[in-house]
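Batch 3, record 17
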Amino acid sequence: MNPLALLARLGRAVLSALAAVGRIAIFAFGAFAHILRPPYYPRELFNALLNVGWLSLPVVGMTAIFTGGALALQIYSGGARFNAEAVVPQIVAIGMVRELGPVLVGLMIAARVTSSIAAEIATMKVTEQIDALVTLSTHPMKYLVAPRVLAALITVPLLVGIGDIIGIAGGYAVAVQNLGFNAAAYLQNTVDFLELRDVVSSLAKGAVFGVIAALMGCYYGMHSGRGAQGVGRATKSSVEAAAVLILAANFVLTGVFFSI
Amino acid sequence: MINMKNVHKAFGPKKVLRGLTLEVPKGTSMVIIGGSGTGKSVALKCVLGLIAPDSGEILVDGKPADSGDRDAFLARFGMLFQGGALFDSLTVWQNVAFRLLRGSLKRPAEEARAIAIEKLRRVGLTPDVADLFPAELSGGMQKRVGLARAIAAEPEIIFFDEPTTGLDPIMAGVINELIREIVVEMGATAMTITHDMSSVRAIADNVAMLHDGVIQWTGPVAQLDNSGDPYLDQFIHGRAEGPIEAVR
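Prediction for the assembled complex:
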């Protein structure tokens, strides 16, 4: 292949990616502007809080408890190779709070909430409900996007906090029941080892991941193509984008909070 | 009065409107006919600002449609969408009273509900449907609810996008009659797009035929059958042979 043609193709791909980043950034800016400016739709916000927060609790709880339990088993068996079985409480705590809690909750929210937001809004677009909103003097960004992004910003850090606690509880249960750890000592080690910075970073990651998850669902829903295929593509793209951005943001935030 | 002057709109390489010029006098009912994909819906959406035209001018009562207070501008319009476009998550009465529950026309919930039930009654639906969700209604009932929503805030201008598509002939006749009655009763300016010739004859004061992105013919509905325009004749008689090429 002609090297210039290859270079041109690469350039087009880079420009297209940059344009997509720009469109998403403008969309995000618009969403936050609509969160701050009246009118507000409290009923829509309440529904979004329910959907993003309350109804995600079972899946977040199940994910966290199994992950905490598995983590305890892994650390115990891995630590046994160099006589470090005793560090299970500390590593479970730090692993859940700093990393696994926020990332797994973020990914579960991407799977559950991003997909549902994208499919709902895309279907509304395909069936002209978004055009209907406009003709009824209601801004779709304000009515559909702002409440969902705000609800994710509020509830996902709470879900991460709950996930962290349940994950640690899962590790505790496995350690005490199966691995012979003393219950009181396990809890004491966990509390003594965790720092405020660990908890703050966990909740901050939750807030960022929540916003990413909701924004991607809304963005791809609002820019959906026509028909069932358009809705399907919007849903798939939203989850892929949310998951990748959450993992990338996790790397950046970990660097920000813990680089020495 | 709605005045569209030399409006152009293209989607990528596809030129949909190529200089559309149309005048809809105040208080009259204009029906736009034309084949699928000729830009009828695009023309309506350009007036509402849902789609921005590439060039040309759209005036509503002499003022550009894209200037001034957008909320106040849209408050003058009601629209019945082809598929109803009812909000799935809201009950029937909340759909009908949508505009009355928020924004500049906001009223107390009880009053908005009472108005919604009155509008439902106006389109032939009983109050017991008010608390159902749109998914629980038949296609004809959804159209009626859409119609009730379009007239709920008593707009000056009402748009109807394919109001009888997907309905059986009897229900289509009922909807046509309702539209005509409501437009006359409210003294509203109406713009309807349709393929259904029975709708045209029932609803229209004036008819415009859109073909190849421009108005091919326009005139009073009484002149529809003796227009002498070969495009219009082919369309209203549903002939495969004629100046309009049918894709087979």
